[in-house]
Amino acid sequence: MRFQEHHHESEGQHLYPLVRARNGQARQWQKWRKREEQRGTCETTTSASPQQIWNILTDVTRIGEWSHECHSARWLDATTEAAPGVRFRGTSRSGIQRWSRTCTFTTVDEPRELAWTTHGGLYGDTTEWRYTLTPTPTTTTRITQTYRIHSLPVWFDRLIWLTNPAHHDRTEALRADLTRLAGLAEHPG
Asked: Domain of life, per the record (predicted)?
């Protein structure tokens, strides 16, 4: 299993933290800049077939069985099958924070690739989650999970950083998600 997280900054730009002025002066915020792109990739292999994994991934009501953060999801618009444009709503929890997002399937290529985009509504954050299932020559399946943050307001990025330490490095949590997903597919029922 491997995970790579990529952060890119424009040349000459830096992130500056909150600075307290000396001699009793008020706090001053230095210029904070949003990272241009935030993304990551995680992989594992399983003895389960792509179809077995697909059946779990495309049933959004089962997401709480394998995700460390999204604890439940429900179909929207009276639909119960994944297809491009179909929506569902996921409810997540990390530490004391709770939130929900409407998600839209963007890629549904059974049993090879599934992707959806989350929509943050008022907060304006948007993330794409993608799962690719690849049969290997050794009769196993490689599960590749990628995420890419498309939009995240600067103020919201900083708020998450300050209030949700679990989001500083999600490597182990995302690895554990894939391990749970593989386990469910290997041992159904």
From this structure: Bacteria
Measured CA to CA, the distance from residue 141 to residue 134 in angstroms comes to 5
Closest CA to 127 of 144, 105, 152, 109: 152
> Is residue 6 assigned to a domain?
no
Report which DSSP code applies to 28: B
For residues 30 and 163, give the distance between their C-alpha atoms in angstroms, rounded to a whole number: 19
Residue 114 contacts by C-beta under 8 Å, 6 or more apart in sequence?
A: 54, 57, 58, 82, 105, 107, 108, 130, 131
Q: Give the residue among 131, 128, 120 at the shortest CA–CA distance from 58.
A: 131
Domain range for 133:
38-184
Judged by DSSP in three states, 164 sits in coil
How far apart are the C-alpha atoms of 34 and 18, rounded to whole Å? 15
Please tell me the total count of domains within the chain.
Answer: 1
Q: What is the pLDDT of residues 148-175, one digit of tens each?
A: 988 777 766 677 777 776 666 677 888 8
The pTM of this model reads: 0.76
